[in-house]
Specification:
Blueprint lengths: L7 E5 L4 H12 L3 E6 L7 H9 L7 E5 L5 H11 L3 E4 L8 H4 L1 H21 L4 E7 L23 H20 L3 E6 L2 E2 L8 H11 L2 E4 L6 E2 L2 E2 H12 L23 E6 L5 E2 H12 L4 E4 L15 H7 L7 H16 L2
Parallel strand pairs: 1-2, 1-4, 2-3, 4-5, 5-6, 6-11, 7-10, 8-13
Antiparallel strand pairs: 9-12
């Protein structure tokens, strides 16, 4: 029998939390994957390497260590590999870190992203899917956050860089007919998660008997979204290249679509959780109580995130639905196994 035709997909940020899980799922379903990552030391490099080790020997996976900002390297990679599609998940992440090292966000999220767009244009890629963020909603106070809302008031440079990605992608969709889809992720958690995010910070501190820092005195709500739901959303969107909206009007422009093949979706659990409820779920999974230290609001943070996922449901027939308690238990079980505690 002839071998099945495999899609050749570039996944940037392949050693990252979401990127490594996307690579895993693509390989499981039979795609060829080239995973790119610069393995920077923003957080523990050994965790990134451990994620990659799970599929590094797969016959249809190839790893490329490269920085998105390497213009000539990216040009060569696109020319040599002839990708069908691209999933761009590489970025300098973190809201708070953007206050300390703003240039890292410009290098990775702006310069790096234009190199991805140029590669897609030059090689006539069938679909570019890229990570945006719920952070783009910034100062918006109408909840749940809808992709049809205006998002012109970011409150961190990280958020501004993600909004810029959406605008840059639109210009390429408009000028060159490149199908692009931006995905606004909402507070992703689960096994293999980032050590700079609340689940690992809280779990590590609770197990060590150390106090956990609870910002805005606990008066926060987050749309915690389990990693498997995020990955399912990415793959479903990837398989359905963005198309023009025939009803789009420049007189009443819809911020989530266009006359160009350009779309924006939220991927979130659509059920915001009080931060204290999330902490209680971790305490229950660990069988231990946290020592709590209440802190003021951090610059760049927002009080509530809440996803309206109607557009995602309408277009690809999917909405995240993993219950918080189940997701937290899976995360804690992974944490205990990985860190041997």
């Amino acid at each position: 029998m002839p071998e099945m035709i495999r899609n050749r997909i570039l996944v940037t940020g392949a050693a990252g939390f979401i990127g490594s899980e996307v690579c895993m799922r693509l390989l499981e379903r039979g795609d060829q994957v080239v995973g790119l990552d610069n393995l920077n030391d923003y957080y523990d490099v050994s965790l990134k390497e451990a994620r990659l080790c799970r599929f590094a020997e797969h016959e249809y996976f190839r790893f490329v260590k490269m920085d998105l900002a390497d213009r000539h390297g990216m040009e060569s990679l696109f020319a040599e590999e002839q990708f069908d599609s691209v999933v761009n998940l590489a970025a300098q992440a973190g809201v708070r870190y953007s206050l300390q090292n703003p240039h890292a966000y410009i290098d990775s999220n702006i310069v790096g992203f234009i190199n991805v767009l140029e590669g897609c244009r030059q090689q006539q890629i069938k679909h570019l899917v890229y990570a945006s963020s719920s952070s783009v909603y910034g100062a918006n106070e109408t909840v749940p956050f809808s992709v049809h809302d205006n998002v012109d008031h970011p409150v961190s440079l990280y958020a501004a860089s993600k909004k810029a990605n959406e605008l840059m992608a639109h210009s390429y969709s408009h000028l060159y007919g490149l199908p692009t889809t931006g995905l606004r992720f909402f507070t992703v958690y689960g096994p293999w998660g980032r050590p700079d995010m609340a689940p690992i910070l809280f779990t590590r501190a609770i197990l060590a008997g150390e106090p956990i820092q609870i910002f805005n005195h606990g008066n926060m709500q987050r749309d915690f979204t389990y990693i498997d739901d995020i990955v399912e959303g990415v793959l479903r969107v990837l398989d359905q290249p963005a198309s023009p909206n025939p009803d789009w009007s420049g007189k009443q422009p819809d911020p989530a679509s266009s006359r160009a093949p350009w779309r924006i979706y939220n991927i979130g659990n659509a059920s915001p959780v009080e931060l204290m409820s999330f902490i209680r779920a971790i305490e229950a999974a660990l069988g231990m109580q946290a020592v709590k230290k209440f802190m003021p609001m951090q610059p760049g943070d927002v009080q509530v995130t809440s996803a309206d996922v109607q557009a995602l449901m309408d277009d690809v027939g999917f909405r995240p639905d993993t219950p918080l308690e189940k997701g937290v238990q899976r995360f804690v079980d992974w944490y205990r196994g990985y860190y041997h505690v």
